[in-house]
Design brief:
By secondary structure, the protein is an alpha/beta fold. It is about 25% helix and about 30% strand. The strands form four sheets. It has a seven-stranded mixed beta sheet. Strands 2-3 form a two-stranded antiparallel ribbon. A two-stranded antiparallel sheet has the order 7-13. The chain starts with a strand and ends in a 6-residue tail after the last helix. The relative contact order is 0.18.
Length: about 240
């Protein structure tokens, strides 16, 4: 399995902190590790040592300066530039050659979580017949995320940022896909905001009966707003326990 970390976007919701620093390099927790390092370490701890980092051209230099070849972190890092704001799925499409025929673990670079990726990888491998797997977490503010509706042991649908969520089950920024994800992305049409949405990709897997899910143990948060960034620091520092 190979790893892909998506570090696109300009981090405008975190201004002024992101005026001169990419948000994925902002520090988290007592060790003041950048968000990006958190994601890399989660992957390497789980045995994923071939990693692609996808970011905007204006941020490539700072990302590469920090991670280098990846040897310091026990991995090999490859970089790709996302030239336009084409959405999460659009960014992921740039990893097609890198993925080759391997399954991939995809992390959004501003997701911070406690649990190891190892049991998640094991769960995905256990259900190898399933093409994709999303990782879910019950949250108090599901309207901020993609929200999964579950019936028994399957996901019925995922709705992106619903005004009236049918559950509090948020789709975290932790995804597992087989090689077919790139074919599915090619079939997706841009949303009203002109982006290729990862929710459309996930719903395509659901409609094909090839989407699994697992509930995440331990705390999880995104860190893309001032409030969630503070929450991420509190959780990673042990100042807040969930």
């Amino acid at each position: 399995m190979r790893g892909v970390i998506l570090c696109g976007g300009n981090g405008t919701r975190l201004l002024p902190a992101t005026k001169s620093v990419n948000k994925h390099l902002l520090p988290i927790g007592l060790g003041m590790r950048p968000m990006l390092q958190h994601c890399v370490e989660k992957m390497t701890e789980a045995g994923i040592v071939d990693i692609m980092v996808i970011t905007g051209g204006e941020h490539l230099g700072s990302m590469a300066e920090f991670l280098g070849s990846g040897s310091e972190f026990g991995c090999k890092v490859t970089y790709r530039v996302q030239n336009s704001a084409s959405g999460i799925a659009g960014a992921l499409s740039l990893a097609e050659d890198f993925a080759d025929d391997s399954s991939i673990c995809v992390l959004l670079g501003d997701n911070i979580f406690k649990s190891s990726l190892k049991p998640l990888i094991g769960e995905y491998a256990l259900h190898a017949f399933t093409g994709a797997m999303v990782v879910l977490k019950d949250v108090p503010d599901p309207e901020r995320f993609g929200v999964a509706t579950i019936a028994g042991d399957r996901i019925v649908k995922i709705v992106e940022k619903p005004r009236d969520p049918q559950s509090n089950c948020a789709v975290t920024g932790i995804y597992f896909y087989d090689r077919r994800v790139f074919d599915i992305i090619r079939m997706c049409k841009p949303s009203a905001r002109g982006e290729l949405e990862i929710t459309d990709v996930n719903n395509a897997y659901i409609e094909a009966g090839q989407m699994g899910f697992v509930k995440l143990n331990g705390w999880w948060t995104d860190a893309g707003t001032h409030e969630s960034y503070q929450r991420a620091n509190d959780l990673a520092s042990g100042r807040k326990v969930e």
